[in-house]
Write a structure and sequence with these properties.
Structural class: alpha+beta
Number of strands: 5
Number of domains: 2
Order of helices and strands: EEHEEEHHHH
CATH superfamily of the largest domain: Beta-grasp domain
CATH topology of the largest domain: Ubiquitin-like (UB roll)
Radius of gyration: 16 Å
Distance between the termini: 35 Å
Largest sheet: 5 strands, mixed
CATH class of the largest domain: Alpha Beta
Shape: globular
Length: 187
């Protein structure tokens, strides 16, 4: 199989590699870039564990091929904390015991980040709808919803532009393709 050269940016850093066209973006991120915070659960786009931000939009990295992300700007969970200082969303998850085994947490955190950027003062119903596409096998979601609400309040009380990824631009066409947002099951 012919390998293709790809270049992209992850968490503000450039990455390049030679990949088979069939290699998933999740595998490229984990194996080629060494960023193992992106987890693979179902590998069918159902669980949300592999959620990352691509050009500001939450996407399932297991459903994309690495070649579809050429020249894209990606954000993984590794970009949230600033050294030992947790991002307010991470801190809220910690404070409200929204972390169980932690396997699904990276996908929840990035889904929350994109959601709160676009919906800074959500209702509990909006939070539940936004998180419906992420599955956790350890909890009943009550503490996760509380954590997202607390994160929204914390971010609203001390707005800092450096805590937010850029908003999603218009869909990219051509070779890179597009992927629908990682949203609820019915979307």
């Amino acid at each position: 199989m012919t390998h293709r050269k790809i270049t992209l940016r992850i968490n503000g850093r450039p990455y390049a590699g030679l990949v088979e066209p069939r290699k998933t973006l999740a595998d490229f991120i984990r194996e080629d870039c060494g960023l193992t915070g992106t987890h693979l659960g179902c590998e069918h786009g159902v669980c949300g564990a592999c959620t990352i931000l691509m050009d500001g939009q939450a996407v399932r990295s297991c459903l994309l091929f690495a070649v579809q992300a050429v020249d894209a700007e990606l954000m993984t969970v590794e970009a949230l904390a600033d050294g030992d200082r947790l991002h307010p969303i991470q801190q809220a998850y910690r404070d409200h015991h929204a972390l169980q085994c932690g396997f699904c947490t990276p996908g929840f955190l990035l889904t929350t980040l994109a959601f709160l950027r676009d919906t800074p003062r959500p209702t509990d119903r909006e939070i539940r709808e936004a998180l419906a596409g992420n599955l956790c096998r350890c909890t009943g979601y009550h503490n996760i919803v509380k954590a997202v609400a607390a994160a929204a309040a914390a971010l609203a009380s001390a707005p800092r532009p450096d805590l937010w990824p850029p908003a999603a631009p218009a869909p990219r066409g051509g070779e890179g393709g597009t992927t629908p947002p990682a949203r609820g099951r019915g979307s």
